[in-house]
Amino acid sequence: MTDPPEATVALPAAVVEWYEKFSRFNSPYPAHRRGRAVDLYPGDGVGRSPVAGVVRAVRTVGCPDRPYAAAEDHLIVVDLADKWCARAGVPTGTVARILHVIPEVSPGDRVAVGDALGPTTRSGFFGQWVDDHVHLGFRPPDANPFRASGSLPVAVDAPVEPVAWDGTGAVVERGPTHVVLGAPRRGDGERSFAALASDGGVPLDGGATHYAGGGAFEIGSETPATGGSEPAALEPGDAVSLFGTPVGTATEHGSEAAVGAPRIEWDPVDVLANGERVVGLSLFAARGDRFGVKLVCPDREFSVGESVTVEVVPSDDPIRLGVG
Fold first, then answer.
1. Pairing state of beta strands 116-119 and 134-139?
2. 9-156: which CATH number, 1.20.1740.10, 2.70.70.10, 3.40.50.2300, 3.20.20.70?
3. Proportion of the chain in helix, strand, coil states, percent, rounded to 5
4. Is the pLDDT of residue 1 over 50?
5. Across 158-253, where does the E strand assignment appear?
6. Are 189 and 298 in contact (CB under 8 A)?
7. CA distance 316 to 268
8. Is pTM beyond 0.90 here?
9. Residues 218, 310, 286, 235: what is their CA dihedral angle, to the nearest 10 degrees?
């Protein structure tokens, strides 16, 4: 007798609209690699609740020791309201797990979508170039919500506009280990989400290619690629290219593969900025004036206003960052 299929949490568009950015695959951790977590970026330092329900537990947990990060992180466990479960297509009793927020809520508190749970925290679980965010995962009824593994698949019910880019742009923001380029240019829908498009018009997600895998966003019929061509859906086994160079292959679906939009296994390639190798591109869906391409470059300095050309080339020794 086979086990029944797992429920997939369909995160409603009305939830992600509380945030400036979101990503399913931009992390080296197994939950993200398998499409079983989503990171939601508020942009204002407030860790808003992406779910409705009652807080079951709040715990302080240890995290990797990083000089730029707090010494501890926090887990907020929420028993989801029946209406929220119905809207997301999961059984009553499903539980949410929220990380990277300093809790200002307590067990027994009732929370609604958009309620402030507390300020976000700089956690050692993510890289210095990663913006503060709310990590969200789900557990089925009767599962142990405190274990690090066992999360349900997560899909995001929000279309993302694929935006074409020629790889050139000026630096508009500089951090200790990254810069943001003020390109590509997007359409008029500043309230909708957009992401860098592959050569085939597929919006890309993840750390390209400093994490072993990335993924794609759902496109939606109302968001054609810049340039007027309708992008084809990315199917498992399809090749993906960027700036004319093959960069990966969509994986087959299955029990260990990502759900929803396919996961992409990156090819051995390097990302170059003005001809020099950098760590990679940090890709996500964003909206408004926060949209741009984040270049991860801890060993390379760029000035605000400097023009940068990004290329992708085959590599015998690609950069791959783990979780240690």
1. unpaired
2. 2.70.70.10
3. 5, 40, 55
4. no
5. 160-163, 168-174, 178-181, 193-196, 204-208, 213-216, 239-242, 245-250
6. no
7. 7
8. yes
9. 10
